[in-house]
Specification:
By secondary structure, the protein is α/β, with parallel strands linked by helices. It has one domain (31-177): Glucose Oxidase, domain 1, CATH 3.50.30. Helix content is 23%, strand content 22%. The chain contains four helices and seven strands. It has a seven-stranded mixed barrel. The longest helix has 15 residues, at 2-16.
């Protein structure tokens, strides 16, 4: 009942402020399958003017935290990024530079988490930098709190990566069955 009230409140709020409302097509969802303590559906936003799109659904693919986390140059764990999705932290260089580093290491996509670990509601618009470079792999922005919680869980379990499903179609999941992170208000 509480979840239904919260969803109704959010719907009414967004309808009351159409200029500030969020459009569904601006979001992409993924679910962490393992480790189990963060088995939630997370929301990410695609880069505005660079990167590819998800043409393939991955039922199980690794989400590998980059080492170093900012991924502004050569990666210590680049071999594990090959054919997987990288979890990168914001800062140190442009979003496009990070995306290109992951692409050069053979990553299928990059999820860039905000470096403000307490950010649980503000999405950054990732835009092209001032160079003429491009990137072909999808680039997504993740809230800082979500990125932090994923990395923290992996550290606590001593795991090198999470297993995720991406993208997830949330329109077919009843609101009361959606496994949302308890720290995020949808």
């Amino acid at each position: 009942a509480a979840m239904l009230r919260r969803s109704l409140w959010l719907f009414l709020y967004l309808c009351s402020y159409p200029g500030r409302g969020l459009r569904v097509h601006e979001y992409l969802y993924f679910q962490v399958l393992s480790p189990g303590d963060i088995r939630y559906i997370f929301t990410a936003t695609p880069a505005k003017d660079f990167g590819g799109v998800f043409n393939t659904r991955y039922d199980q693919i690794y989400l590998v935290p980059a080492d170093p986390p900012e991924a502004c140059g050569e990666l210590n764990n680049g071999v594990f990024i090959q054919d997987q999705i990288a979890l990168v932290e914001r800062g140190g260089c442009s979003f496009l530079s990070k995306t290109r580093v992951i692409q050069e290491h053979g990553g299928r996509a990059v999820i860039i988490a905000d470096n403000a670990y307490d950010n649980d509601s503000f999405y950054i618009e990732m835009i092209q930098d001032s160079t003429r470079r491009t990137a072909d792999i999808p680039a997504l922005f993740l809230l800082g709190r979500d990125g932090y919680m994923i990395r923290r869980s992996l550290e606590q379990h001593g795991l090198p990566w999470a297993v995720i499903s991406i993208p997830v179609n949330v329109t077919s999941i009843p609101t009361y069955e959606m496994m949302q992170p308890p720290w995020t208000f949808w």
